[in-house]
TrEMBL record:
Belongs to the peptidase M17 family. One of its GO terms (biological process) is proteolysis. GO terms for molecular function: manganese ion binding; metalloaminopeptidase activity. Keywords: Aminopeptidase, Hydrolase, Manganese, Protease. It holds the Pfam family Peptidase_M17_N_1. Residues 307-314 form the Cytosol aminopeptidase domain. It comes from Salipiger aestuarii. GO terms for cellular component: cytoplasm. PROSITE patterns: CYTOSOL_AP. InterPro entries: Leucine_aapep/pepB, Macro_dom-like, Peptidase_M17_C, Peptidase_M17_N_1. The lineage of its organism: Bacteria, Pseudomonadati, Pseudomonadota, Alphaproteobacteria, Rhodobacterales. This is Leucyl aminopeptidase.
Length: 460
């Protein structure tokens, strides 16, 4: 599905964005028939209201989009997308009322509102199209929308059609599109070089693998690591059915880094990009890894397995160890890692961990500007002792149940020792309820903020 603005056209209907408090003033500038039509329709400017304005021949000559109040808009992103979803299919151009500082966000929301997942049923609907407002960077916004669509498509695809091999195919297709290079490690080499990735994925008939994509030959080095658990049964610590129902989304970290990588390459940013995705399925079989097993990681650290359902940090750890060996300028990991993060901040916020205050501040500011909100969480050093079971270097699931997202982040940090700048995102990757421009289903969380912050983080 292309996410493109409509070309400017004389046929584009002028769209007036009307705040509730500004409606009466706007009406004073209109002729008597228009005022009468709007009065008879009951249009009030409430958020989500729309109204076509008829000409003398009955055909529409314009449209109104209610923009509500500052208070109602404060509660959601992409407020204008409520109108985009309600207006009939036609081409519109913003004629008045849209605050310039919101033009980019609302334009992105308009494009994203046309997303539908139609692989298995239905068809893409005809939607209201927008001419890009003159003040926005239209190509960049289109790039952001397409990257988000990729992430949503990958997460929404069920595990029957999105296993490790299919995730590899998606990465290879992306690499081919932009001239990147992809290497994949599997089989005995995976057993020897990435033992924890192999241990987690070995019970599945769908072979585990490590996907390694590289793009760019000059500039600062950025490495993205995404959790690619294509389905998570919990392993021998089997999840209950209610918790297993959404586990097709457990590769949401991989989907998010691939969406971010697509945007970076499409925008031709002056950097060297590496994407690492440990792609596995955590299954139950006779050779599944077991509670109380002790695994030796790529880094040489030993890990006691106290819960086979805490598998994401294991596969990420081996990938992070590989990333760290190269000492890039910045490593970012993204994973649907813990339920504790959801309890802490819910599904809308993307919590992240970072020891560098400058990086954290840049990310938070960028997230606000990009309508991709983030929340900083602490790498809390006093909890480090909880990771040390005594029988091994690390415990993959410390007992007690408290601070689960923090201890998971601390676990991952143990595998990044040579690279001074590391950020970890513990995302949800899913919208449980529909919202403007954000339908129920797979979601990007963090990539737009990271992308917007990269100039500051890497001195681009």
């Amino acid at each position: 599905m292309p996410f493109r603005f409509a070309a400017p056209s004389d046929d584009a209907l002028p769209l007036h964005v009307i705040e509730q408090d500004a409606l009466s003033g706007w009406l004073t500038t209109q002729d008597d028939p228009t005022r009468a039509w709007i009065g008879a329709s009951g249009f009030s400017g409430a958020l989500g209201e729309t109204l076509l304005l008829p000409g003398r021949d009955g055909r529409p000559v314009g449209a109104l989009a209610g923009y509500g109040s500052a208070k109602t808009r404060q509660r959601l992103r992409f407020a204008l997308a409520t109108a985009a979803a309600a207006l009939p299919a036609a081409i519109y151009r913003v004629a008045s009322g849209l605050p310039p500082e919101k033009a980019a966000e609302e334009s992105l929301g308009w494009l994203l509102s046309s997303y539908t997942f139609t692989r298995y049923a239905g068809a893409a609907r005809d939607s209201a199209r927008l001419v890009a407002p003159g003040a926005v960077d239209a190509p960049r916004i289109e790039t952001l929308a397409e990257a988000e669509a990729l992430t949503r498509d990958l997460v929404n695809t069920p595990a029957s059609d999105m296993g490790p091999a299919e995730l590899e195919s998606a990465a290879r297709a992306l690499a081919d599109r932009f001239g990147a290079v992809t290497e994949v490690t599997g089989g005995d080499t995976l057993r020897d070089g990435f033992p924890m990735i192999h241990a987690v994925g070995r019970a599945s008939p769908r072979a585990p693998r490590l996907i390694d994509l590289r793009w760019g030959t000059a500039g600062p080095r950025l490495t993205l690591v995404g959790k690619g658990v294509c389905f998570d049964t919990g392993g021998l610590n089997l999840k209950p059915g209610s918790s297993m129902g959404l586990m097709k989304k457990d590769m949401g970290g991989a989907a998010n880094v691939l969406g971010l990588a697509q945007a970076i390459m499409a925008l031709d940013l002056p950097l060297q990009l590496r994407v690492l995705i440990p792609a596995v399925e955590n299954s139950v079989a006779g050779d599944a890894f077991r509670p109380q097993d002790i695994l030796t990681s790529r880094k040489g650290l030993t890990v006691e397995i106290n819960n086979t359902d805490a598998e994401g940090r294991l596969v990420l750890a081996d990938a992070l160890a590989l990333a760290d060996e190269e000492q890039p300028d910045l490593i970012v990991s993204m994973a649907t890692l813990t339920g504790a993060a959801r309890v802490a901040v819910g599904p809308d916020l993307a919590p992240f961990y970072c020891d560098d205050d400058r990086i954290a501040s840049a990310l938070i500011a960028a997230g606000s500007d990009a309508a991709d909100p983030l929340w900083r969480m602490p790498f809390w050093d006093p909890y480090e002792a909880r990771l040390e079971p005594g029988i091994a270097d690390l415990d993959n699931a410390p007992s007690g149940g408290m601070a689960g997202s923090i201890t998971a982040a601390l676990f991952l940090r143990r595998f990044v020792t040579a690279t001074p700048r590391y950020v970890h995102f513990d995302i949800y990757g899913w919208n449980p309820t529909p919202a403007p421009a954000r339908p129920k289903g797979g979601a990007g969380q963090g990539p737009r903020a990271i992308l917007a912050a990269l100039p500051a983080l890497l001195d681009l």
